[in-house]
Amino acid sequence: MTDWLISVGTGKNQLPLIRCAKEMGYNVVGLDKNPNKSEVDDYLQVSTYEYTEAYKKILDLPYKSDLKGIFARVSGPAVTMQSFLAERLMLPSTNAKIAEMSVSKCVLREEAVNRKVETILGKSVSTLSSLEPIYPVVVKPNQSLFGKENVYLANNFDELNQAFTKAVTESYDSKVEVQNFIQGEDICFLCVFHLGKIIWYFPYNEHVEMKDGKFSGKGISGPLINFQSENKILNLIQKLTFNMCISGFVFFCFRMDNQNCFNLYELNPGLCGDKIADELLPKIWPEFDFFRADIELCVGNLPNFPNKNLITERVYVET
């Protein structure tokens, strides 16, 4: 019997993983409201937000005992589909709490505070009446439908009100996260976990610009050569993920202030956007297939990752 993998979504972002899995000899069943039938071996026509319905349909599959892994390259509430199904099917995956922190800025902030991990403080609100902000503040959807888009800087109440009006319509739970603004640099770590342990990591910068009060990605560059705070950040990540049996890729983003303090503000599981997996990593390691590594991790295998310490030049990619 051929082993099967589950793909959460069948759109263009999932295609590199779907095609890689098929090249490796797996059959792929896709979960999607509008499945790309030509790319998968089977499909279940179900929204990636309908976790219970998807699980019921999976239990009716004639090859359910041959399901060996599940992968996802999605953002927003669909992220939780992978961990929900993996837990019930006993497949390797990112932890459910990781998925929850990825989806909700409020949950991430609260979990970081509880685990004594430095984070950007703020408040998640559905109206502005309960706020007493100290300007400037950063305004963003609490559960963003569009990844890192729609993030604003407000210097007064009028700007806050305008940003809130935009952000609330782009939040899945209709709440807006209003955070303290910290001037500084964005330091990110792509970490690879295997059964809860970090087995490889890649530090890089995100470069952001602001235009008309809105933040947007300008580029990414890495790795960080001779970066002196690797252990400090790894300790923060280990505190946040302590006692979580995580397998797979997870991105962690920190704002480094002028006192060299690192404040966690975002995390995302999987080989998600911003051209990291599609452009930056292949430019640094053209002979290593990170999508194949993701498939290996999703079935419980341990890939042999490249030696990042041999890289002596930083690569920049526009986003």
Task: Describe how the helices and strands are arranged.
Layout (H helix, E strand, L loop, with lengths): L3 E5 L6 H9 L3 E6 L9 E4 L5 H9 L7 E6 L6 H11 L6 H8 L1 H10 L7 E4 L11 E5 L9 E4 L2 H12 L7 E5 L4 E10 L2 E15 L2 E9 L7 H11 L7 E9 L5 E8 L6 H9 L5 H9 L16 E4 L1
Parallel strand pairs: 1-2, 1-4, 2-3
Antiparallel strand pairs: 5-8, 6-7, 6-8, 7-11, 9-10, 9-12, 10-11, 11-14, 12-13
Helix pairs in contact: 1-9, 3-4, 4-5
Mean pLDDT: 94
N-to-C terminal Cα separation, in Å? 42 Å
Strand content: 25-35%
At CATH level 2, the architecture of the largest domain is 2-Layer Sandwich
Secondary structure: helix percent: 25-40%
Class of the largest domain in CATH? Alpha Beta
This entry's quaternary arrangement is: single chain
Low-confidence stretches: none
> How do the SSEs run, as a string of H and E?
EHEEHEHHHEEEHEEEEHEEHHE
Number of domains: 3
Per CATH, the superfamily of the largest domain is ATP-grasp fold, B domain
Could you say which overall geometry the principal axes of the C-alpha atoms support?
A: globular
CATH topology of the largest domain: D-amino Acid Aminotransferase, Chain A, domain 1
Computed over alpha carbons, the radius of gyration is 20 Å
Total beta strand runs: 14
Number of helices: 9
Q: How would you sum up the major sheet? A: 10 strands, antiparallel
- Overall structural class, as computed from helix and strand content, comes to alpha+beta
Q: What does this molecule look like?
A:
A hairpin with a 2-residue loop joins strand 10 (197-211) and strand 11. The model has no long low-confidence stretch (mean pLDDT 94). This protein is of the alpha+beta class and 319 residues long. The strands form 2 sheets. Strands 5, 6, 7, 8, 9, 10, 11, 12, 13 and 14 form a 10-stranded antiparallel sheet that branches. A 4-stranded parallel sheet has the order 3-2-1-4, sandwiched between helices. The protein contains 9 helices and 14 strands. The chain has 3 domains: 4-91, 3-Layer(aba) Sandwich (Rossmann fold), CATH 3.40.50; 100-104 and 183-318, ATP-grasp fold, B domain (D-amino Acid Aminotransferase, Chain A, domain 1, 2-Layer Sandwich); 121-180, ATP-grasp fold, A domain (Dna Ligase, domain 1). The radius of gyration is 20 Å and the shape is globular. The longest helix is centred in the middle third of the chain and has 12 residues, at 157-168. The chain has helices spanning 15-23, 51-59, 79-89, 96-103, 105-114, 157-168, 230-240, 276-284, 290-298, and strands at 4-8, 27-32, 42-45, 67-72, 122-125, 137-141, 151-154, 176-180, 185-194, 197-211, 214-222, 248-256, 262-269, 315-318.
